[in-house]
Design a protein that fits this description.
alpha+beta, Heat Shock Protein 90, 5-stranded antiparallel sheet, 3 helices, 5 strands
């Protein structure tokens, strides 16, 4: 039986200026689990996009609050959980990326997250919780590949 190991629990204000610190802490944790700089960069990008979506869409410009980032390791799987405490309950339909052939800035965060992560799910939780987004990435390469 593989033991789940919590690597990080970080609570931070849902503000864009906090993201530099969040990315740095995430890099430190991922550096202990993966030697692939490319994999680390991709995961940091996906988690950063998810955080910015929470900041911009769950809280919006008028609501202030926090985000909790939890990182766990279960075998070769890395589990990233983002919890917000926003009044707005996000539904899966709201997490759709815009069509890729639609040329305009923005709207690609969900596409990037889904391309990088192996699993992405919005976890249903009680009303007082806000939203919980869970993302999973396997750090073992598929058989026959390295890196």
């Amino acid at each position: 039986m593989t033991k789940k190991m919590q690597l990080l629990q970080l609570k931070f204000p849902a503000r864009a200026e906090e993201m530099c610190t969040v990315r740095q802490k995430l890099r430190e944790v991922l550096g202990t689990c993966s030697k692939s700089e490319s994999t680390i960069n991709c995961i940091v990008l996906a988690v950063g996009e998810a955080c910015m979506n929470i900041i911009q869409h769950a809280y919006g410009s008028s609501e202030k609050g926090d985000i909790v980032l939890e990182v766990e390791k279960l075998g070769s799987d890395m589990i990233f959980r983002l919890r917000d405490f926003a009044k707005h309950k996000t539904c899966a339909k709201e997490m759709q990326s815009r069509p890729l052939d639609e040329l305009r800035p923005g709207g690609l965060g969900c596409h990037i997250i889904n391309e990088i992560m192996d699993e992405v799910q919005l976890i249903d939780c009680e009303k007082s919780c806000g939203n919980v987004l869970q993302m999973k990435k396997c750090l073992s390469p598929p058989k026959g590949q390295t890196g």
